[in-house]
Design brief:
Elements: H1 7-20, E1 27-28, E2 31-32, H2 34-49, H3 53-59, H4 70-90, E3 96-100, E4 105-108, E5 111-114, H5 117-124, E6 130-134, E7 148-150, H6 151-166, E8 175-176, H7 180-188, H8 194-197, H9 201-225, E9 229-232, H10 239-250, E10 254-258, E11 287-290, H11 293-303, E12 310-313, H12 317-325, E13 335-339, H13 347-350, H14 353-361, E14 365-369, H15 378-387, E15 394-397, H16 404-409, E16 413-416, H17 421-427, E17 432-434, H18 437-442, E18 452-454, H19 462-475
Parallel strand pairs: 3-6, 3-9, 6-7, 9-10, 10-11, 11-12, 13-14, 13-16, 14-15, 16-17, 17-18
Antiparallel strand pairs: 1-2, 1-8, 4-5
Length: 491
């Protein structure tokens, strides 16, 4: 296989693998593992395309485990036992378990507000019917704080106990991986880093045992809470989430992936699944809730082949919430919103010489909105802006401090490389200009030269074309917003 240079190349590679090998039959320790492998491959290919594999490898640090004496281990075990059982004792029955992260929160009235789940809770009065499972950092001053469960802390207590118990158990590994050796040999011939991928047969045995190790925690949790729906803002990437999803599916609880970003036809978590076992994959949710019709159509194009998977359009909750509580007239403004990307992009990758020239020449203020997972140092960005003499015409904006719908509606246009903010702008009737080929690939179905445009930066006339698009947009201020969405939990 040639070097990967686009998301379409990634898609073609994954579809080739699905066609050539019996991926739907691959089972390790009772788990159909293709979703786990496919998603790891997709993310790995993306990192290779963006040349971020080496950067990631350099950034990894060796973790030295501290040796603890037997007394400390015993005390830790007792504390974990007490705290874990106290945690389970305090749980109440709830209809909905919502798995999310601090990166999905924004500051609102002094509290950190989950743009998806808290917005839904407010819209439909669900505050007393939900538990919010935060699996990363937890802010102390959060909205509906009583509903928040610190997943990482409580599952840590369970793991401390289970490590001791597991020493007295032996795993009876069973795998059924027809043609997997051929698949693995194929991977050796293409540009991937198998040492980083870790999807050899031994790796899969280790991973499935890890998932089985975590499952009893969620089985006990679900038995106490008795939810009828479990939702994930992205079901992949964390072993604890895979264990939560697998356990829910195996216990007949409805599982949902709630859209949290682009779900276009080249995003290979959400696109073009071609092979399914008859019983489906327990590592995938049974429903997909989408922001808009384009996203739904993309998932429906393959999910209709899997009888157990459903899709529906529920809107973008925070957009709906914000419109309910705020005026949304199309105001006269002087802003251009530029939504930035995260790793592996550096500021000079996004604020290119041509963008710098546009900032200088156009009579507008540019709002540089940071990605929720931003890793760039604000001071470094400011120095870059100062050195290029554009700091007086730019504002660096956190994704937390200002509501995105308000910023979108108070801007002339939204500019992006390939941010999912495009969909939110589209829902709010605000035009977007895409300035990166990845975005052109990703949002091809949105491109219409009326509300979503693509401009090639390598084009000699890029700056002129950009200015012309701004003039066109300012003359065509038609805004249509759909606010009529039903409670997704009830239909």
């Amino acid at each position: 296989m040639n070097a990967i240079s686009s998301q379409n190349d990634i898609k073609a590679s994954i579809l080739y693998i699905e066609e050539k090998y019996p991926v739907d039959l691959w089972e390790v320790n009772g788990i159909k593992v293709w979703p786990y492998i496919r998603i790891k491959l997709y993310i790995h290919f993306l990192m290779m395309m963006n040349k971020s594999i080496d950067r990631e490898t350099k950034q990894k640090k060796d973790v030295v485990e501290k040796k603890r004496n037997l007394l400390n281990l015993f005390l830790e075990l007792i504390i974990s036992f007490v705290k874990l059982n106290l945690f389970f004792f305090k749980l109440n029955k709830k209809k909905y378990l919502l798995f999310g992260s601090h990166i999905q929160r924004v500051k609102q009235n002094g509290l950190y507000f989950n743009r998806f789940y808290d917005a839904l809770s407010d819209l439909y009065g669900l505050q007393e019917e939900v538990y919010m499972m935060e699996f990363q950092k937890v802010y102390t001053n959060s909205y509906n704080k009583g509903a928040i469960i610190t997943l990482e802390k409580n599952i840590h207590y369970y793991k401390n106990i289970q490590k001791v118990v597991s020493k007295f158990k032996k795993n009876s590994d069973v795998s059924n991986l027809p043609d997997y050796k051929l698949f693995y040999e194929y991977l050796k011939k293409i540009p991937v880093r198998l040492d980083l991928l870790k999807i050899g047969e031994k790796d899969l045995l280790k991973w499935t045992n890890k998932i089985h190790f975590i499952k009893p925690f969620f089985k006990r949790f679900y038995k106490k809470v008795q939810p009828n729906t479990i939702s994930f803002l992205g079901f992949y990437g964390y072993d604890d989430l895979y264990a939560a999803l697998l356990t829910a599916n195996q216990n007949g609880i409805k599982t949902v992936d709630f859209q949290h970003g682009p779900q276009t036809n080249i995003h290979m978590v959400y696109s073009s699944w071609t092979k399914f076992p008859k019983e489906g994959y327990d590592l995938m949710p049974k429903e997909f809730w989408n922001w808009d019709e384009f996203s739904k159509e993309n998932i429906e194009s393959w999910s209709k082949k899997a009888a157990k998977i459903k899709t529906k359009v529920v809107g973008q909750p925070f957009v709906n919430y914000w419109l309910k509580h705020n005026s949304f007239e199309n105001k006269t403004n002087n802003n251009i919103l530029y939504s930035l990307q995260t790793f592996p992009f550096e500021i000079q990758d996004m604020i290119t010489p041509k963008i710098i020239q546009l900032i200088k020449e156009l009579p507008y203020q540019w709002i540089l909105r940071l990605h929720p997972r931003n890793y760039l140092k604000i001071d470094g960005i400011q120095v870059f802006l100062d050195n290029n003499n554009i700091s007086d015409k730019t504002i660096i904006q956190s994704s937390i401090d200002s509501p995105l719908p308000e910023v979108i509606l108070n801007s002339i246009v939204h500019v992006t490389n390939f941010s999912g903010c495009l969909i939110e702008a589209h829902l709010l009737g605000k035009p977007t200009i895409i300035i990166n080929n990845i975005g052109k690939e990703m949002f091809a179905q949105y491109l219409d030269n009326k509300s979503v445009f693509y401009l090639e930066q390598k084009n000699i006339d890029f700056e002129l074309n950009f200015k012309n698009k701004i003039s066109f947009i300012k003359k065509n201020k038609n805004i249509t917003i759909n606010k009529n969405f039903l409670n997704p939990f009830e239909y």
